[in-house]
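Objective 1b: paired records.
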Amino acid sequence: MKNKLLCVIVVVMMVAGVIGASPVKAAAYGTSFTTSITYQNVGTDTATISLEFYAEGSGTPIIIARPDLEPMAGTSIFVGSLGDLAPGFKGSAVMVSNQPLVATLVQIPPTTSDVKVRPLSNGFTGGASYILIPTALRSTFNANTIISVQNVDSVAADFRLVFVPVSGSNIVVEVEDVPAYATKYFDLAQMPEFTAPFNGSVQVFASKAGTTDPGAAVASALELQTNANGASAFEATNDFATTVYMPSALCLFNGVQTSSYAVQNTTEDDVTVSVTYSSGVVDGPHTLAPGAKRSFNACDGGNAPGYIGSAKINASGGEVVAIGKVFGGGLSTAFLGFTGGTSKVALPYVRWTTDHWYDGTRQRAFIAIQNVGADLAAGSVTVKYYDKDGVLVGTDTLGAIPAGAKVNSNAGNIGAAGAEFGYYVDGSFGGSAVVEGPAGSALAVIVRIQTRVGSTDVAEDYSGIAIQ
């Protein structure tokens, strides 16, 4: 049996321009990014892997074989190093394997760029005919959004995107005959349908081309600042719920870092939404119109400066989806909220440095683990750290985690073996982790990949991926 892992936002040297103005030299919007696909074999046997790349609008794959990968091993491929892809390639990819894989896409700016953060998003194992993007911007909050939608059906598809503003009328964009596995990009700042700033959310409908039959699509988004260096990425979702968990919540932590949540109504009726923080503060209830979003700031409602914790979003009258963000002090992160948890979570991209932190050449991965199920006893949850060959380097055994609480882990906790985790003397790199609780437990995990740049930390988040 072949497993397919779907990767959108695969970009080699994509250059975007700002309508009506020259791009700010240092800004994230206007910067070229090249993708590195970081992936992990979470199966029980050696994985035989190939990559199929599809240029935007093309149904013809460029097939590239990859080296075999041992169980639990993690590695990466820098797309810009592949001679089969021409400079300027923009599209998507499908990873084909005889073992289950998980993947996180890393968007890397040029080394000479003032942009140092690396936007992160996850790959997909399947699509849906209706997916949601909880936040999209055009010339709002000094940011623009670029959305990529991939047809993951075996036949051509038609896409219908409904852009729902916080206030005002919906904007509908339709695209026909997108080939199987091909991708269509939507840069809000370049689209003629947008003549004014936009702040809202997006509904994506996919159907088999020329019919009303349901299709299958996946999508991701890049959010790029137009006047500064902040950049982030996140996945669209078709996983809706009345409760969404956020493992990260901050209010002016370290004096500067604050969380915000974009919550989108998935239904055709009004819903009421509240956010409950682990501090006990409740923001809400607030009413959301059909398809609309509302933004929540963790400093609203009474959280004191310095607060760090987690949060739970509750909806009444219908289901919602949500994106979490952290900003301030160099951070510009985004991650998809969790509608539940699982007992085993894969983290394909994990690094840690001790000796090279302050020179900015290596990264640190901070892992936040929220228990969204029943109380868990001390020692019942572990974080296992694996090297690039799938060898277990060390295990971080966690303390008790009450229901709703959050704990943290990093490779530095496993001692000397984790001092330069994911980095090797031959110049190669690769490291991953698995968070595991007892059968029936429910864990939600996000990873913050952080880099020191001078006196500032830059960072981006990605969500842990359930191992089935």
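Objective 1b, second protein:
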Amino acid sequence: MKSMLQSPNIAPALTRLKNALGNRADGSVWMLDGGVASARGTYATRDLLLVPAEQALVIAVPLPLPSHAKRISALPFAIEDRIADRIDRVHLALGASPIGGEWLAAAVDPAVMAQWVAAAEMAGLADAAIMPDALALPLPEAGRWNVHRIGARILVRRPDGTGFAGLQPLFLPIWTAAGKPPCDEVELPAMTALPLDLRQGMFARPRQGLSATGRRVALVAAAGLLAHGAIATADTIALRSIADKRGAELTAQLNLSAPGRFTGTDPHEAAAVAAELLPAGGTAPPGALLPLLNRASTALAPFGGAVTIRAMSFDEAGRSLRLDCDLADPGAAGGIVDALRQAGLSGRFAGDSLIVTGGGA
């Protein structure tokens, strides 16, 4: 059994499972341009679609509440005075963790959000996270802005974690109104963080990735299933080996007893030929053990949890089967005898032994 569990057929399967379930950064980053998603050649913890930040309002909100559910419930009241539209006409999303003590939140037109989800599905990214592209920039130092140019657009990330984007003519008045903070021009990082996913509420992703704990549980469960399969395979191989050995013994004995009568190798055919050679009639026909054992086993099957067979012997002359057994419930003895009687057999207990005969069948 040890060699089976360590065989080269199982170890690679465990390795593949570990790689598949492990905590890996295996997502690609895509950017929506003109309604079409294009790959950027950078990576994230999962597939990520970056959408124009001009169409999403990202703000920092103080939500000193103990649970995510309570923060979600309080979010509409915390931002309703900071958006121009009615709160029930916008799609809201909340960041995964606070930045500088406050939580990132975003408000998006539901119709625009639906277009982004549809674009993701068209690109084969139905399970991708969706995030305003400005949030892909790294956080700047306090008092500074990080900026990145994409054609005529300028992406901006601010120290509080929020971000926005706009064409250069619009950027200049916003920058001036903010006190002209120093700006550092940066590149989009090769590994993009995910501070906020717009796929929440009615736009939630169709399936969620496993958490680190979930991955560990899944890996342990999968390893257990593989080990169980290996044990079952080992048991099957052992039984098959015993059957092959018994078949070879039967074939050899048949060739010795009746040379030339059987020339094949199939143990089933050998058994049929041997049955034809057995004498009929008599008080104790050879081969009575197996039919008796089969009928007794069927009758005793419902008592599998109450009786344990320690040893078995067969009296050919008396056509009786002796089963040395242990009863978990002594009161089950009467039921066992009745079950044997219903199967057309006679049964009685002699101490710890159950004596079974063919009865009147």
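The mean pLDDT is 79. The domain at 21-208 is CATH 3.30.420 (Nucleotidyltransferase; domain 5).
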